[in-house]
Every structure is written in structure tokens, then in C-alpha cells.
Amino acid sequence: MSQDFQHLTEKIKQESAFVDKINSELDNVIVGQKTMIERLLIALLSNGHILLEGVPGLAKTLAVKSLAATIQADFSRLQFTPDLLPADLIGTMIYNQKKEEFAVRKGPVFANFILADEINRAPAKVQSALLEAMQERQVTIGENTFKLPEPFLVLATMNPVEQEGTYPLPEAQVDRFMLKVVIDYPTRDEEQAIIRQQIAPEKKQPKPVLAKEEIIKARNVVHEVYLDEKIEKYIVDLVFATRYPAEYRLQKLQPMITFGGSPRASIALALAAKSYAFLQHRAFVIPDDVRAIAHDVLRHRIGLSFEAEAENITSSQIIDEVINVVQVP
């Protein structure tokens, strides 16, 4: 058993070596935002998608574009607007007069990395078209169904400042995002470094460090990361505490929560913890891996009551309470 585990440890160290190369390349281009880059890699290795919340100008586009460049992947940026149609996203049938037949014109969703900028600006039809592509990994145009390329990662952004003219995502659709990451302003030193970088005569460009196929191979290795039964139970307890807080001595949270994390939350937490361990070049998951990623997995999966909103209680505060109370294995 110990020999097998030693072999797995060596394999994980070897297979995860590319992570340091990617981080090194991205450090040349992006100042700060370590958490966002780490979460992007977790979603990529877990075959999930990310919802990013943050004010404009925090390097969201630059991060996903640079990551795509390091693994030689196709990148598409979509600015969501109220007049956008599903066909603008997935493609449509175009009539060819010469051949007297309809031909398929694929939309920008046929790329490895999709940046859906301000997803809440587009109406429900467009949001549904994107979410279907995310879930099914395929698109139907006319009578034809097309598989989306692998790897396929959607990074959707929401601007928390402006709410006029927006179409908030329904909870059931938000649940399809593996992670919701809230990003903040850079520090004073980071902002100074950003200024220096942006006014420099030559801007650095990220270089490719591995092929797309290696990411798909790495995903299979991530599944081999050992997740102990005690850690599985810990994950289930965290999610159940958001559904039935009274059972975990959290009676005060009962009136604050309208619904807790779905089974998707448990799956996402287990997968994200494995990916997090892989990024640390570790062959097994520890409770700290689960705690590190819990906020991003759970914050968009907890429904807040009017009472919670009236008292300015956020889902992050609820997750803090849950993490502090649920027994660590």
C-alpha cells in the first residue's frame, strides 16, 4: 500500500510540474491576482466553469487570455448586451446561393476559453444558450449537433456596481458554475507595479509552455489524487450544514438561509479539493484544501432570506460560521 502511495506521489509531482511553468509565465504578464489565477487552474483541471464578480479593470480578460496563450488554446471574448441573440453566441444557418443550400456558420462559443463579459447584461434566452453549452459540452444548430472543443472553460463576469438594465441569473443556472470568485482591488505595491508594467515601452507576452492535450491528460491524473473517506464525510457535513444548520448547532443561521448547497456543491467541493492538492504537488487531499476552496464553491449556492439581507449578512459570513463549527477530521 505504502509503495503504491509513494508511486502516486512521484507521479503527481511529475505530472503537476507544468503548474509552476504556467504560474511563472503568468507572473510576467499579470501583477497580483494570485487567487483568480489559481481558481482558473482549478476550474480547468476539474472541467468546471467560473463566475467572477469584481469591478472593471481587475485583469479578468488579461488573465484568461494569458492562460489560453500558455496552453496554446483558442480564446473568445463575448461582450453580453441586451440586444444579443443566441445565434450571435452559438452560430446559425446561412443560405448559400451558389450551392442553393443552407450551411452552418459556427459562433464564437466554439473555442477552448470563453470570456462571457457581464453575463447578466444579456436576456434569459442568451444566458440559457451559453449555460446549455456549458452543461452539455455541445451545441445544436438547425438539425446538426456539434461537440465543443476540449478543454472548454467558461469564465463569466458580473459587474456588482451597476444593476440597471441587467437580467440576474436564476439560482438554478448559477449552480452550474463550479466556482464563484469575488476579486478585489490590488494592493498599493501591486498597483504601482501595474502602472510601471503598463507604461513600459515593451509589453511582455506569455509564451506557450504546454499543449492542450496535456491539460486533458492532467485531468485524469487529478482524479487519482487520494480523497480519504473522512474527508468525504467532512465535505458532506459542510454542505449539509448549509441545508440543515440546526443539526450542526447553528440554529441562529436557520432563519437566514432559504436553501443550502445542492449535491453539485458536494461534487464540486471534492473535485476542487483534489485539483487544489494537485496544484500543491500533493497526492492526497487534506482538510485545509477543502477549507481553502469552500467559499468559492458554496457562496453562490446558498439562498439568503429577506432577514439575512435586512441584517446585511452575506453568504461568506454564513460559510465562515459553518467552517468554524463543523468538526474537522
Give a structural overview:
This protein is an alpha/beta fold and 329 residues long. It has two domains: 169 residues, P-loop containing nucleotide triphosphate hydrolases (Rossmann fold); 101 residues, Helicase, Ruva Protein, domain 3 (Orthogonal Bundle), CATH 1.10.8.80. 47% of the residues lie in helices and 15% in strands. The chain has 14 helices and eleven strands. A five-stranded parallel β-sheet has the order 2-5-8-1-9. Helix 10 crosses helix 11, helix 11 crosses helix 12 and helix 12 packs antiparallel against helix 14. The longest helix has 17 residues. The protein is globular, with a radius of gyration of 21 Å. The two termini are 22 Å apart. The mean pLDDT is 86.
- The structural domain count equals 2
**Main beta-sheet strand count, sense and barrel state:** 5 strands, parallel
Radius of gyration: 21 Å
Shape: globular
CATH superfamily (homologous) name of the largest domain: P-loop containing nucleotide triphosphate hydrolases
How much beta, percentage-wise?
5-15%
Detail the topology: elements first, then pairings:
Elements: H1 2-15, H2 17-29, H3 34-46, E1 50-53, H4 60-70, E2 75-79, H5 86-90, E3 91-96, E4 101-106, E5 113-117, H6 124-136, E6 138-141, E7 144-147, E8 153-158, H7 171-174, E9 179-182, H8 188-198, H9 212-222, H10 229-243, E10 257-259, H11 263-279, H12 287-298, E11 303-304, H13 306-310, H14 315-325
Parallel strand pairs: 1-8, 1-9, 2-5, 5-8
Antiparallel strand pairs: 3-4, 6-7, 10-11
